[in-house]
Amino acid sequence: MQKVFKEVKSLDKRCYDELHLSEDILMEQASMALANEVLLQTKKDDKVLFVCGSGNNGADGITAARILVKQRDVSVYIPIGVKSKMAELQLKRLRALHVKVVTSVINADVYVDALFGSGLVRDFSENILLIIQQMNNKKAKKIACDVPTGIDSKGRVKSICFKADVTITMGALKESLFSDDAKDYVGEIKVANLGVSRENYETKQSCFLLEDSDLKLPYREQATVNKGSFGHVIVISGHKEGASRLSAIAAFNFGAGLVTLCGKNRNNIPLSIMGNEVMPKEFSVVVAGMGMGYIYGDEKLRDFLLSHSKPLVIDADLLHHKILKEILVKKEEVILTPHPKEFASLLKVLDIADVDTKEIQIDRFKWVREFSKVYPKAILVLKGANTIITQDKKLYINSLGTSKLAKGGSGDVLSGMIGSLLAQGYSPLDSAISGVLAHVKVASECRCASFGLTPEDLCEGIKWL
User: Fold this and answer.
1) Is 15 in the same domain as 152?
2) Of the residues 205, 231, 248, which one is the last residue of a structural domain?
3) Which of the pair, 121 or 296, is modelled with greater confidence?
4) How many Cα atoms are found within 13 Å in the side-chain-facing hemisphere of 137?
5) Does residue 201 sit in the same domain as residue 217?
6) Which of 180, 237, 373, 410 has most Cβ atoms within 10 angstroms of its Cβ?
7) How many domains does the chain have?
8) Distance of CA 213 to the CA centre of its chain
9) Could you tell me the CATH number of the domain that includes residue 322?
């Protein structure tokens, strides 16, 4: 896991006040990382254009251009002049080396966006809009300095945004880089050290970026075991029986020793899945909500969900149900797995907020935190391009997702996978983290067109992780 921060100004200030590093030192280190990425992406004779703003983000670009003099064919474009003291100083240093300062977006092999950094608040002028559009339209490699121009501090994308192949972000990872809106613009994200290691630059944090290495698969290492050693998952069937069937198959394929479909509409059950109208006496976890509809009354739902002390995984239709309040008050181990529209309904049902899907997507981090304040024990898995998992004010971001998963039924598979890990003894948080990571890993490794992946493919692919 890597730490992710809302802002890094306080971290920069700590470098000045406690580590006795000057602003100039931090900028030189940031610019060196930017210059090194340009070297990595280019050949000796390639042309590089740095498009620089008036503040310190522009100063980073100007400094990197200076570092690259004689190593690459470098030009600098400063469309709105320089205003910050550091930008003025770095431009003075650049001019001493007689670097070409151009007055338009010229043809180049690499474009470096150093217009505006993570503190963007202003709307763009017509000239800046045109410049970003011109760079985006060029068939060339594109590198963003700190944050692609057009993404603000909350990860919201303006009317236009620089589309980077690589973003060199300064000092530490920033939440704004991991909004769903930002995903198509940031490219590969790399962190530049600023004169000290990230371990020394960063402070304590409650938000983390998940990595491949955080996935813990339920491999079976002991020989003396039986099916009961790996838990019993109950999946509640409902109106649309295909959804619960997908969850049940996913749970079984991900290692659960036993899986039972309970309730109504238990048709076409695979041979490996058991079926029963009522709950069995012994089980490990209940997964419910997928395709459920409203075929059960409150009394029956309470029987399924509240008549026992076992963990719950709640998805889909149950995320709109008034019984959620009672579940979250009475149950110790609950995992909720909404997509944004379901999350908006969930917040309303729980009397946390009355917001629509658009408002959720504008600031996903804010609303996830609002939920966690009220229900710190519950695990929330907010699905999306960058899925967010939260418990007790801690956030975990999975940025490894793929558009292959944008299919009906993919979420049903995820719920079954999470339930399977719970049944096998994982903690609720570890079940959510490894379930989400395994889900995207299966999709990414499936050899099919990006539009062709089906939930059945996911269920089959689980077996080959």
Assistant:
1) yes
2) 205
3) 296
4) 10
5) no
6) 237
7) 2
8) 16
9) 3.40.1190.20
Q: Quick one: 282 and 189 in the same domain?
A: no
Residue 13 neighbours by CB distance under 10 Å: 10
Asked whether residue 120 carries a pLDDT value surpassing 70, the answer given is no
Q: For 358-386, write each residue's pLDDT tens digit.
A: 999 999 999 999 999 999 999 999 999 99
CB-based contacts of 39, cutoff 8 Å, min separation 6: 68, 71, 72
> Which pLDDT does position 121 carry in this prediction?
67
Between 117 and 113, the more confident residue is: 113
379-404 mean pLDDT: 96
Domain boundary among 205, 224, 252: 205
- 143 three-class SS: strand
Given a cut of 90, whether residue 243 has pLDDT beyond it is yes
In this structure, is the dihedral angle defined by the CA atoms of residues 66, 67, 68 and 69, taken in order, positive or negative? Answer: positive
Is the domain of 181 the same as that of 257? no
Q: Which single residue is written with the structure tokens 């966690």?
A: 372
Is it the case that residue 200 has pLDDT exceeding 70?
yes
Q: What is the mean pLDDT of residues 210-236?
A: 94
Distance CA 237, CA 346 (A): 21
Structural tokens at position 272: 């490996």
Conformational region of residue 267, where left means phi above 0, alpha means psi within -120 to 50, and beta covers everything else = beta
Domain with 152, as residue range(s), is 2-205
Q: Which two tokens stand for residue 360?
A: 């959720």
Residue 259 shares a structural domain with residue 357: yes
> Which of 17, 26, 112, 10 lies closest to 68 in space, CA to CA?
112
Mean pLDDT of 217-222: 93
Token readout for 379 is 């695990």
| Shared domain check, 326 and 195 | no
Q: How far apart are CA 397 and CA 382, in angstroms?
A: 10
* Average pLDDT score over the chain: 94
Distance CA 154, CA 457 (A): 35
Q: Cα-flanking dihedrals φ and ψ of residue 311, to 5°? A: -65, 155
Q: Are residues 251 and 331 in the same domain?
A: yes
Q: In the beta sheet, which residues pair with residue 314?
A: 288, 336
The answer to whether the beta carbons of residues 59 and 93 sit under 8 Å apart is no
Whether the CB-CB separation of 118 and 146 falls below 8 Å is answered with: yes
Q: Region 434-438: what's the mean pLDDT?
A: 98
